Amino acid sequence: MGTPQPRCNASFKDFRCNNVGMQIAVIIIPILLTLSTLLVVVVVLWKSCLRRRGQKIEPIIVLNAEDLNHEGKEQGVVNTAASFEDLQHNPEPFLEKWELPPDRGIKSVEFLCDGRFGAVCRATVGKKGASETGQMAIVRECAETSSPGKVREFHDLIKFHIRVCNHSSLVKVLWCQTTIQPLRLFLADMHPGNLLSYLWKLREGDLRGVDCTYDLTEKRVYSMALQLASGLEYLTGTLKLVHGYVAACNVLIDQDMNARLCGLGLAAEVYRMGALSYGKDAEVPIKWLAPERIVKRIITEKSDVWSFGIFLYEVVTLGSPPYLALTPPEVLPKLKSGHRMQKPEQCSKHL
């Protein structure tokens, strides 16, 4: 009889019991570990790509149809084939009551600036042939040479202002002109008008003794801030929108420091499309953008809160731009490192 072979025991360190099996295990196990690691990496990269793609195509703010149940509201891709003639053949009934009355016309015009669609002017609107002064208005025009897409976009902008600007802290619509060219939007003018220009004028000298309008007390600053916060809350809470460019240049004031938000072009873009295109978002200066918006190009109500803080800094410093010592490319790295602007000397702790 031959000598019996020893039985393999896992507790023994004699690997000669199954030498061939161990050699196979030494080869297969590393291969399986490598393949599983590669699979995990591929899955992570795939999900990351999907997430980035979703950030590019998903709406920045999803409009809730129940909250924005406006008759005739158009949402989606802009009809680039639309033209002024198309609008004439397909008038919107709800715009009729907002059309500039036939017996009224523009009496005097003061050019202010070139806007996105055409000239922006301050004008006097009154009855034709009457000697009375008329009503002052800010007039936004769509140039007659505009592309069909621009015409449609401006037409949608008119509808947006009429439907949305129903709050005491948003710029008020007076009339529109959609039946003849050029297309026009008439907004209520205020005096002294643009807040940033007002702040710069305060820098020219002590005007408080000449005109009480130029007596900017902390109480007035606080009141103005409350008004604008109320307007922003209306946009985000009621309409699920954001302003997108909260800054002194987009605020109008009157002699009693009643303030109204204007510059609602970005909000109109979100209202119409359900999202904000990268090109429109890039029109806002970096120094007014929240850090997360600079990096991810995502806009939320929190981004407006950040910009609201920048706006308050402008007011307290009489129109000084934020981050004076920084160039735009330097802003984001500094913010990431924890840099924040110091409280201006003329600003109380309460404010």
From TrEMBL:
Cellular component, GO, one term: receptor complex
Keywords: ATP-binding, Membrane, Nucleotide-binding, Transmembrane, Transmembrane helix
Chain ranges of the Protein kinase domain: 106-351
Membrane-spanning segments: 20-46
A Pfam family matched in the record: PK_Tyr_Ser-Thr
Single Gene Ontology BP annotation: cell surface receptor protein tyrosine kinase signaling pathway
Molecular function terms from GO: ATP binding; transmembrane receptor protein tyrosine kinase activity
Full protein name: Protein kinase domain-containing protein
